[in-house]
Amino acid sequence: MTALRKKIEETRKMMYETYEKNPNDPEILFISQKLDVLLNKYDRLRKNTKKFK
User: Fold this and answer.
1) What pLDDT, on a 0 to 100 scale, did the predictor assign at position 52?
2) Which long-range contacts does 27-34 make (Cβ < 8 Å, 24+ apart)?
3) Cα torsion at 14, 34, 9, 22 (round to 10°)?
4) Which residues in the chain land under pLDDT 70?
5) Measured by CB atoms within 10 angstroms of the end CB, which terminus of the chain is less buried, N or C?
6) Segment holding 1, helix H or strand E
7) Is 21 buried (19+), middle (13-18) or exposed (0-12) by CB count in 10 A?
8) Alpha helices in the chain (DSSP H)
9) DSSP letter string over 2-13?
10) d(Cα 50, Cα 47) in Å, to the nearest integer?
């Protein structure tokens, strides 16, 4: 999960940096969608981990 959290933070940073360069860059949408996938994966893992404790 630590690696996944790191990937989430890297993707979030990339999205913010892209936005700061050009708020209308269509790449922001793709980065945002990638971030959503990572966050959903993290949430599922977190919930599954709690079930087994």
Assistant:
1) 63
2) none
3) 20
4) 51-53
5) C
6) none
7) exposed
8) 2-21, 27-51
9) HHHHHHHHHHHH
10) 5
Helix, strand or coil, per DSSP, at residue 36: helix
Q: Compute φ and ψ for 25, nearest 5 degrees.
A: -65, 125
CA dist., res. 43 & res. 11, Å (int): 16
Output the pTM of the full model. Answer: 0.84
Q: Are 13 and 50 in contact (CB under 8 A)?
A: no
Cβ contact 8:31 at 8 Å: no
Question: Residue 8 class from Cβ within 10 Å (0-12 exposed, 13-18 middle, 19+ buried)?
Answer: middle
pLDDT of residue 48: 87
Locate tokens 């989430």: which residue?
8
